[in-house]
Amino acid sequence: MFYRDERLALFIDGSNLYAAAKALGFDIDYKKLRSEFLSRGKLVRAFYYTALLEDQEYSPIRPLVDWLDYNGFTMVTKPAKEFTDSMGRRKVKGNMDIELAVDAMEMADRIDHMVLFSGDGDFRPLVEAVQRKGVRVSVVSTIRSQPPMIADELRRQADNFIELEDLKDVIGRPPRPPRPREDDGQEYGEDI
Disulfide: which of 40, 74, 125, 158 matches 139 by Cβ 3.0-4.6 Å? Predict the structure, then answer.
């Protein structure tokens, strides 16, 4: 579904891709992901979108954001907003849909193929608008999780749907070996 001479741009909805990969039981190796799409065409840009909690001393996503920033990804971040819902629960809100949509529309005249890593149905009108500009759109998400992580309307609108689980062997990070226990030197999960 890819042509070697076409100009590609990746648009990665960070939280959506993370949730889809977690639902399938693997972690993404972003170096492998970028290499894979470099081999499929002329990669013009690889955007990664995420909201960050700015007031936290340590954010678990900060090392990933820094690594991506130094390794060929265009980082698009904004501060997440914390609030308390009507039930008194602390919630974090950090929607990056508008930023992704604006960048995609700006890039549409410079690319032949958009690869959207998200299953969010809110992106259906964006996909349709980019297609009207002559850009082919592939959407990467999963239907193999329960519930499926891709909205049906987004999958139908896309020119091509790529099942994330089918990319697991290509862009997945190998599982970490179990850490030894301090008390007996045995590996976790081993029979004694």
Answer: 158
